[in-house]
Specification:
The structure holds two protein chains of two kinds. By secondary structure, chain A is an alpha/beta fold. Chain A is built from ten helices and five strands. The chains are: A alpha/beta, B alpha/beta. Chains A and B meet through α7 and α8 of A and α4 of B.
Chain lengths: 311, 133
């Protein structure tokens, strides 16, 4: 009995192999049209089993402990919409549409604290769930399954790729935005008296920030017609040759614009460093603290400050 | 004179000359400008010169060297020179390129004239004016 069955299955197999060979021979000529026919069929299959597959996907996400920052309800509504988009992209192959969707999705979930590995993880899970469903549908016809996978895999890879890249790009965009905001805030140029500006610097000075600082300082000198500028570096924790040279440049450029610069708030540590590394500060007018700096600047500008009860 | 005259105007204001550069000058035009200005210093017995470069968006190394040389030449002819109207980008570029302009500078024409008023009265030689930097 078993022999007989075995024979029969062998026969069937042989028969199928021969069909496969024939088909493979024909494949070269018609593979493109085949792919075109296969994809709609595949999409129709995925649409038909939408509820079942997206449910399975949500279960897998839950089992893998991904997206724990989101509630069950959010996950299920998000998965359904991602599923629809996924199938649609498979159908149209339009990457622009997908990029827009992925960016939109990232924008929504990044503030919820969703990590990159989670996003990549869920997309790969969906890819896996759908691939398994295709396996079970076409398991009887290995050659056809191969073709289906040929059509499915590149599209699915492209989707995974695009979603991951969009997510990372969105994060980078947020980071850049915050950096810009920080830079914008980090160098205020303030007018304290007519023709007197102060420029308090807080935090580490790197080349980019120093360049921006000089730029804002020079523009501030022009718009406020400043004659004296007090740069306070009390909030600068450390200084090296590069930063010291940036300061010297800022002072030189200000002088070219007709303003003299007073630097205040050099800590004993910074003073020691500057002397040790041999930066030439003879051209710079340095004064101990911000108060003395402003008093000196007022003196240069011809202001005299008196208390009301003394005047 | 003809070529440089189109881009530079030299006006007299009391004891001072005001030279405004309206457009970027090439090397020959700069040399021409130097000659013209130095001649005018003698002819009009000027005690001070203001050079206004507010219209310049860029200043190359030759230009900045010419201006610096001009300041020294003017001093030898007895006139103090102040450079005014340096744009922020130009100032930054000059400093970045290490082209040190060791001459007097001021924000604009008004400031430049104030500076010359301050420097010239009791002390008519540009040499000691530089000493007061």
């Amino acid at each position: 009995m078993s022999n007989h069955l075995g024979d029969k299955s062998y026969d069937q197999h042989a028969e199928r192999t021969s069909t496969t060979t024939m088909r493979a021979a024909a494949d070269d000529a018609v593979s493109i049209t085949d792919d075109h026919k296969l994809l709609p069929e595949l999409v129709a299959h995925l649409r038909e089993h939408r509820a079942e597959l997206s449910g399975e996907w949500a279960r897998r996400i839950d089992a893998s402990h991904l997206l724990h920052a989101m509630t069950q309800q959010e996950i299920s509504s998000e998965t359904t919409s991602v599923y629809d988009n996924y199938v649609e992209v498979l159908e149209t192959g339009s990457v622009e549409e997908l990029q827009r969707y992925a960016r939109d999705l990232s924008e929504r979930i990044i503030p919820r604290g969703v990590e990159t590995h989670e996003v990549v993880g869920i997309v790969l899970l969906l890819r896996d769930v759908l691939a398994r469903s295709l396996f079970s549908k076409y398991q009887d016809d290995f050659a056809l399954l191969n073709q289906v996978l040929d059509a499915y895999e590149p599209a699915a890879n492209r989707i995974a790729n695009t979603v991951a890249v969009s997510f990372v790009e969105e994060r980078e965009r947020v980071i850049r935005q915050q950096q810009d905001a920080l830079l914008e805030l980090s160098t205020p140029v303030l007018q304290v008296r007519e023709r007197l500006l102060i420029l308090p610097i807080i935090g580490v000075l790197d080349t980019q920030r120093a360049t921006q600082l000089t730029d804002q300082l020079l523009r501030g000198i022009r718009t406020n017609r400043a004659k004296v500028v007090v740069i306070d570096i009390t909030g600068v924790p450390e200084i090296d040759t590069t930063v010291a040279n940036h300061l010297v440049e800022a002072v030189d450029a200000s002088r070219l614009m007709g303003a003299s610069v007073i630097i205040t708030g050099l800590s004993s540590e910074i003073a020691r460093t500057l002397v040790t590394i041999g930066v030439d500060l003879t051209k710079m007018n340095t004064i101990g603290d911000l108060q003395s700096g402003i008093e000196e600047a007022e003196r240069q500008l011809g202001f005299r400050t008196t208390r009301a009860d003394e005047g | 004179m003809a070529a440089a005259a189109m881009f530079v105007s030299i006006l007299q204001q009391g004891d001072f000359l005001i030279a405004s550069i309206h457009a970027a000058l090439d090397d020959t035009e700069f040399v021409r400008f130097q000659e013209d200005l130095l001649e005018q210093v003698g002819a009009r017995r000027a005690k001070g010169i203001v050079i206004d470069i507010a219209a310049l968006d860029v200043l190359d190394s030759f230009g900045s060297k010419s201006l610096r040389d001009l300041a020294h030449m003017a001093r030898l002819r007895g006139a103090a020179l102040v450079l005014v109207g340096i744009q922020p980008d130009v100032a930054f570029a000059i400093v970045k390129l290490g082209m040190h302009i060791d001459i007097h500078t001021a924000l604009d024409l008004e400031e430049g004239l104030c500076f010359l008023e301050e420097v010239t009265p009791g002390d008519r030689t540009g040499g000691s004016a530089l000493g007061r930097l």
